[in-house]
Amino acid sequence: MPKYLEFRLPDVGEGLTEADIVDWKVAVGDRVTVNQALVEIETAKSLVELPSPHAGVISKVLVEAGATVEVGTPIVVIDTDPDGAPEDDGGSPAVASGSGGAADGAASADDETSGDVLVGYGTKHAAASRRPRRAAEPAPAGGPAAQPAPPAPATQPAPAAPAAAPPSPPAPATAPTSTGTVDGQAAAPSSTILAKPPVRKLAKDLGIELNRVPGTGPGGIITRGDVEAAAQRSEPERLVSYPGDDRPWLDGGVVSADGRQTRVPVRSVRARTAEAMVASAFTAPHVTVFQTVDVTKTMKLVARLKEDRDFSDTRVTPLLIAAKALILAIRRHPTISAAWDDATQEIVYKHYINLGIAASTPRGLVVPNIKDAHRMSLHELAVALGDLTATARAGKTTPAAMTDGTVTITNVGVFGIDTGTPILNPGESAILAFGAITQRPWVHHGKIKPRWVTQLALSMDHRLIDGELGSRVLADTARTLADPAQGLVWG
Amino acid sequence: MIQSDTHGETPHVGTQDDDLIQLLTVTGERVHQQTYSPLVEHLDRAALEGLYRDMVLVRRFDTEATALQRHGELGLWPQCLGQEAAQIGSGRALAAQDHVFPSYREHGVGWTRGLDLRKVLHQFRGEDHGGWDPAEHNFSLYTLVIGSHALHATGYAMGVQRDGDVGTGDPDRDRAVVAYFGDGATSQGDVSEAMVFAAVNDAPVVFFCQNNQWAISEPTERQSRVPLYRRGSGFGIPGVRVDGNDVLACYAVTQEALERARSGGGPTFIEAVTYRMGAHTTSDDPTRYRSRAEEDHWRTRDPIDRLKLHLVAEGTTPEFFTALDEEAEEFGAQIRDYCRSIPKAAPSRIFEHVYAAEHSLVEAERSWFNDYEAGFATEGAQR
C-alpha cells in the first residue's frame, strides 16, 4: 500500500517565517533516499539544501520553484512504500489511513514527531497534525486506551468513538492529510485551544472565552486579532449610525424600519437579573432604613492599612471596612441572616454569613458571594473581595459563587450616588447600599468641620425582619464605620 | 613578535609553522617529535583504528543531526564537522576521573566520555535544558554562553585541589579538569579571569582551545595579534600549539598537559589549530564571509582522511572501512529514529535541578506556574 508522507518547510534558521523555493533537485516519480537533497531554498539567512526525511518516491511537488512559502507549509509528498499493493479504497487517495493498525501508527508517528519538534517555529505543522488527535481524547473520558483506531477510512476522527481515543495512532486525518491540508483548508474545530500565552493572557484580561473564538492563524491558532475582534463583538457600547436617525445608537439587535428603535432579545445575565428582581420585589415586602454617618476614622484606617505590610498584597478600600462592619453587626443580631421558605412556611436561620457583593461587569450585574465571610480575618476578607471582583470583571464568576448568599452589599457609592433603596437578592433577607463618601460640613466636637460622610441604606424582607431588627443592624454597622475601634469591642 | 596578517587565500597554518606540533602529516606520514612522539608510541594499529572509528561515527552523528535540523526535527544544530581529531584526540587522552567542561560543539569529546550522543539531541530539539547527568561521565552540560565555563572549570579544578586529588602520585586518584572553548571565547573576559585564577592557584586545569579560525563570522586574526597559544604566557601558563586535525598530536599534547595538571604542575593552554568545515550553526551561512578557496584548502587537510591514509599504509584492510561505513549508516538511522521519538517534556521541567536541595522560592514559582498551566486546561474544558 503506498504510504504518503508530507514534508513541510522547516524553519532552518531559528525564527524564520518563510523561505523562497530556489530549485527542485527532484521531480515527481524520482526515487529518493534519506537525506538526499530534495530542494534548495533561500531564507533571510542563507541558501540551504533540504535533505529528504524519508526514503521513497516523490509523489507530488506542491510548490513551484520561485515561490515564497511559509514555514510549515507542505512542499512535497513522498510515497514511502511505493512498492506496496495498490490501495483498495477509492476514497481520499492520498491519505495513509487505509492501512490501519500498526503500520499506519508508525506512519503517523513519524509525521507527528515531525510536528512536535521545533522550539516554536514548527508549531504550525504540529498544530495541523495534532489537532485531530486531541479532539478525540476528551470525549470518552475512558482513559488513553492504546488500542489502535478502527481502520476507518474517514478523514475525521469520530468524535465520540468510545475508548478508541488512541494517543499515538490517530489513523486518519493526521499524517499526510491529503489535499485537504495541502489546500490550506482549516482543520476541524477541536477542543484543544491553540493560542500563545500573551494571547491567552489578553483573552483572560478581556473576559473572552477562547473556546468561543475561531482561530484564523496558521493551523487554527487564535491570534491577538481574533481575540480583539471577539472582544469587540461582545462589547455592547459600540455605536453606529442608522438611516433615518440623526444620532448613533448601539450596534446590534433588530432596528425598526424607521431606524428609531432597536429591539434586543433578553438573554443571559439581563434575563436572570430581571427574573430575580421581579421575584424579589413582588414576593418580599421591602422596607428600607437610612443612616448618614461620619466615616472619617474609617478613611484614616483605610489609609493606614494601605501602608501596612500585611496588606501589601491586596487592595484596601472603604468597602472592606463596610463589609467588616456589616458582618460584626450581623453577629450581634444573627437573626437577620435568615430566609423565608414559602413552601414549608418556615424561616431558615443561617448560622453563617455568605456575603454577597453586587458587581457591575461588562456582561451585566452579578452577585457572587464570599463564603463564610464571618470566619475571615480582615486580611482574608480583603483578599476574598479582590478575588471576587477580579473574577466578576473577567466574566468568570461561577454559578456556585452566586448561590446561597445570606446578605449583600451594593456599593452604589462608586457611581457617586448618595444611596438608594436596594432590592433584595432573592433568598436573602437584607441588603446594604453603601453610598458615596464625600466631604461635607459636619458637627464634630461641637464645631462644624469638613468630615468624610456617607449614607447607608438597608433594605430588608419585612415578612421576617421587623424594622427594629433592621434598624439595629444598620445602626451597628454605622457605628463601626464611624469608629472602627468599636470593632475591637464587638469583634 | 606580532604575527603578520594573512587575510585571504593563504591560510596561516601549515607545515611551515615551526611552532605547530604535528605527529601525522596531511598525507598520513608519521613525524618524529622529540617530546610528543613517545607519548603515542603505545598506540598500536588497533588503537589507531579505534580513533578512526571514533571520528567516523562522530562525524556520522554530526551530519545526521544537521540533516535532522533540515528535516525540521531540531531547532538548531552546531556542527563539529572538521574538528573531530581535536576532540577525539584530546578526549581519548582523558582518564575516567578527569572532568570536562565543554562548550556546545564538543560532540566528539562527549563520545569519548561514554556519553550516549543521542541525549545531546534533546536540548537542540527544545525538549530538555541539558540532557544528561554530568556526574555520570564527568562531562558537564553544554555551555552556550561563550567562555563562561572556563571559570567553572577553574573553580572545579581548585575544588579538586582542595580535595587533595592532585599530586598524590596515585594514577587512579589524581584528577585534571579540561575546559573546551573556541577561538572566539578567548576574547571573553571570563576566559582571561579563569586563566588568572588558574595560574596563581596552580589549578589542575587544561584550557583546550579549538581554534577553528572563525568566531561565527569573525576571523581569528581580527581577535588576536599573537597566536592564541601565546595568550597563556602573560598569565604564567605554558602554551602549546598543536595541529588540531592531527588526532595523534592532539592526543599527545593533551596527555602531557593532563599529566602536568594531575601532578600539581598547574594549568596549560592548548591551541588546537583546526577548521570548522561546516557552518557555525544551522542558522549560519559561511559563504557570506569566507571564500571557497579557503574551504577547499582545509578540505585537503581533513582529519579523517589523514588518518585513513596512514591506516591504509599500515595495512588496515578494506573490510575494516566497509564494515565501519555500514556501522556508521546504521548509527545514523538510529539517531534519526531516536530523535523523532523524543517525547515532549512538560514545561514545568524548567524548575527541576535549579538547586540541589528543595528551595522555597522555586517551589512557589513552580506551584504558581502549574496553576497557571492548569488554568488553560479548564478554560478549554469549560463547555
Q: Tell me the name of the CATH class of the largest domain in chain A.
A: Alpha Beta
Rg estimate of chain A, integer Å: 33 Å
The helical percent of chain B reads 40-55%
Number of strands of chain A: 23
Assembly category:
heterodimer
The CATH topology assignment of the largest domain in chain B is Rossmann fold
Organism (chain A): Occultella gossypii
Biased composition (Polar residues) (chain A): 177-193
Pfam families (chain A): 2-oxoacid_dh (PF00198), Biotin_lipoyl (PF00364), E3_binding (PF02817)
Biased composition (Pro residues) (chain A): 147-173
Describe the overall structure.
The complex is a heterodimer of chains A (491) and B (383). With 491 residues, chain A is of the alpha+beta class. Chain A folds into 3 domains: 4-182, RNA polymerase II/Efflux pump adaptor protein, barrel-sandwich hybrid domain (OB fold (Dihydrolipoamide Acetyltransferase, E2P), Beta Barrel), CATH 2.40.50; 197-233, Dihydrolipoamide Transferase; 279-490, Chloramphenicol Acetyltransferase (2-Layer Sandwich), CATH 3.30.559.10. Helix content of chain A is 27%, strand content 22%. Chain A has 11 helices and 23 strands. In chain A, strands 13, 16, 19, 20, 21, 22 and 23 form a 7-stranded mixed sheet that branches. Chain A has a 4-stranded antiparallel sheet with strand order 1-8-6-3. A 4-stranded antiparallel sheet of chain A has the order 5-4-2-7, with no helix packed on it. The radius of gyration of chain A is 33 Å and the shape is elongated. The termini of chain A are far apart. In chain A, 39% of the residues are buried. Chain B is of the alpha/beta class. Chain B folds into 2 domains: 37-340, Thiamin diphosphate (ThDP)-binding fold, Pyr/PP domains (Rossmann fold, 3-Layer(aba) Sandwich), CATH 3.40.50.970; 347-381. Chain B is 45% helix and 8% strand. In chain B, the strands form 2 sheets. A 5-stranded parallel sheet of chain B has the order 1-2-3-7-6, sandwiched between helices. A two-stranded antiparallel ribbon of chain B has the order 4-5. In chain B, helix 2 (45-71) runs antiparallel to helix 12 (303-314) and helix 2 packs parallel to helix 13 (318-340). The relative contact order of chain B is 0.16. The A-B interface holds A 7-14, 34-35, 45-51, 53, 109-110, 113-114, 116-122, 125, 138, 191-193, 200, 209-211 and B 64, 67, 69-76, 125-126, 279, 282-285, 287-288, 333, 336, 340-342, 344, 376, 379-383.
